Amino acid sequence: xxxxxxxxxxxxxxPLGIDDLLDPEELAVRxxxxxxxxxxxxxxxxxxxxxxxxxxxxxxxxxxxxxxxLGMTLDGYxxxxxxxxxxxxxxxxxxxxxxxxxxxxxxxxxxxxxxIHTYGSEEQKQRWLPSMAAGETIGCFGLTEPDIGSDPAxxxxxxxxxGGDWVLNGRKMWITNGSVAGVAVVWARTDEGIRGFAVPTxxxxxxxxxxxxxxSLRASVTSELVMDDVRLPADALLPGATGLxxxxxxxxxxxxxxVWGAMGAAxxxxxxxxxxxxxxxxxxxxxxxxxxTQAKLADMALELHKGILLAHHLGRRLDAGRLRPEQVSxxxxxxxxxxxxxxxxxxxxxxxxxxxLEYPVMRHAGNLESVLTYEGTVEMHxxxxxxxxxxxxAFR
Length: 396
What we know:
Layout: H1 24-40, H2 45-51, H3 57-67, H4 84-97, H5 99-119, H6 122-133, E1 139-142, E2 158-162, E3 165-176, E4 183-190, E5 193-200, E6 206-207, E7 222-233, E8 237-242, H7 245-279, E9 281-282, E10 285-286, H8 291-319, H9 325-350, H10 361-373, H11 378-390
Parallel strand pairs: 1-4
Antiparallel strand pairs: 2-3, 3-7, 4-5, 5-8, 6-7, 9-10
Helix pairs in contact: 1-4, 4-5, 4-7, 5-6, 5-7, 7-8, 7-9, 7-10, 8-9, 9-10, 9-11
InterPro entries: Acyl-CoA_Oxase/DH_mid-dom, Acyl-CoA_Oxase/DH_mid-dom_sf, AcylCo_DH-like_C, AcylCo_DH/oxidase_C, AcylCoA_DH/ox_N, AcylCoA_DH/ox_N_sf, AcylCoA_DH/oxidase_NM_dom_sf, Glutaryl-CoA_DH_mitochondrial
Family: Belongs to the acyl-CoA dehydrogenase family.
Protein name: Acyl-CoA dehydrogenase family protein
């Protein structure tokens, strides 16, 4: 008999050896984004979060563009044409820094750019996508309204034809990037059904007041979109976007990134708790040596790496063209929920220090409360899965 192969050492950062599933290009993408986030975000994020600002967002966008992180999975027009797994790894690393940074990238690429790339005319693609991929133009995505969230079919924003133009009126709410965007993809009710428009934000009648006093996603730009008789030429209409299927397709693409991103926030909180447990001493020894603390760490590691495996599996399915929207709901529902629980458990290990911005835990926990709600609440994803499992529609 041959001697058994020598096992690799146990890696607390990758206890299941998930890195073995990644090819060199995927690892390079992950490491590049991780290094950028460590250099450009982590030294400042506590200050940005405390002040409720994201200073230098335009510069950050250009840097992310130079990394190929904007519209990352799209082909042509200056986009990277990366795989879904590569994009997911980037989302994980960005959200390990802060959910607000990942949201900037998700809204730019998976919502605004994806909508133009998928449903826009060739002229619209040429006009907007190259500068958006470079981070020179920031985009936003206007679907949610002040009184309309989970039921977008009830939207009140409307567009009416006036000669050869469209006239757009309405309000959108909780719009990431809104106040700094150069183009807004806005969904509106028309006589032809729900349609999408690429709206230059310097169009008369368009404004985007920033929303303040947030206790979550504080290091991000969140705005209301106000449209008062915004007159648009006919070519502002996204010709391929008809009905709710179009914006929901964009949301599914963005939710996929959240499946990965939530695990980044969870990983950051877990790592903080693990390091703290090894060094914090009580009763004469590190608290990591006590059974209850070890049980917490073991349970956190289980859910963290199960979530990463789930994200990886969904990414491979997306790359193979086999990922269903219900499976994206599966991933978002599980991973965001488990990420919040990991953050809360990490906070208990850090004790009172867990509420300090010297550590990332409470910041991630606060951010994830928004991530839990946006792009589909828990209840909506439960009902999506419930319908898929039973064949019965509980929405209506």
